[in-house]
Amino acid sequence: MHNYLETLPFWKELTDDQKQLLSTHIIERSFQKGDILNHGSQECTGLEMMVKGQARIFMMSPQGNEITLYRLLEQDVCVLSAACMIHSLTFTVSMEFETDAVILLIPKQILQIVSLQNCRVKDFTMELVADRFSSVMNTMHDVMFSSNEHRLAQALLTQMQLQEATSLQLTHDTLAHELGTAREVVSRLLKQFQRDGLLQQSRGCITILDEQRLSRL
To answer: What residues does the HTH crp-type domain cover (predicted)?
Structure first.
């Protein structure tokens, strides 16, 4: 666990006592694929670091529609779990683990102590918030100004990178949640993509046949 702490950008700026404090109190947590954590403005566990696996951060409407905001991959840090560090930040989002995963948690009390002692820790938190805010704004821009065809094509290309394969284990529901749209919209577009020779569908699987054409949509 200590090796992963050393990858934090502010680690070298900490005193020996601060490093010891973090190392002593860090918690390892394991999750299974499909597990969901909820993060809201009133909930604060601390700073979470993805050691193994991946997760998607998403929002859900009162009607139950979902949209993926961004993903956490190995060695990414989740700032949403440290909302207590930013008192004016209000939101309700969820984290769904897309694979079995292991995260390291710096408890909020320990994080607050070190942050008060070392401004570099608070700077890191604010920089991370700015970076995630940029990701969310890009997602909102696509939702408002990009066509569903383009967004679906980009989602499929992203899944190719994540799964490192052209035959993707994906359902229409999963893609609908990814894009924040209706399942019927996704099904209609996938049928069109199949007619155009871009992909082939089978139960629970989508095989990409023409990545270059898909990327131009």
So the answer is: 146-212
Q: Does domain 4-144 have CATH number 2.60.120.10?
A: yes
Nearest to 102 by CA among 138, 66, 148, 54: 54
Over the stretch 4-46, which tens digit does the pLDDT of each residue have? 888 888 999 999 999 999 999 999 999 999 999 877 655 667 8
Kindly provide the b/e burial profile for residues 140-160, where b requires at least 16 CB atoms within 10 angstroms of the residue's own CB: eebeeeeeeeebbbbbbeebb
% of the chain with per-residue pLDDT over 70: 91
* Rounded CA separation 208/194 (Å): 9
Q: How far apart are CA 53 and CA 103, in angstroms?
A: 9
Write out residues in the chain with pLDDT < 50, as ranges: none
What CA–CA distance (Å, rounded) separates 166 from 196?
A: 17
Output the pTM of the full model: 0.82
Domain 146-215 has CATH 1.10.10.10: yes
Q: In whole angstroms, what is the distance from residue 21 CA to residue 62 CA?
A: 41
Domain extent listing, the chain? 4-144, 146-215
If residue 158 lies in a helix (H) or strand (E), which one and from where to where? helix 148-163
What's residue 65's pLDDT? 84
> How far is Cα 92 from Cα 213, in angstroms, rounded to an integer?
37
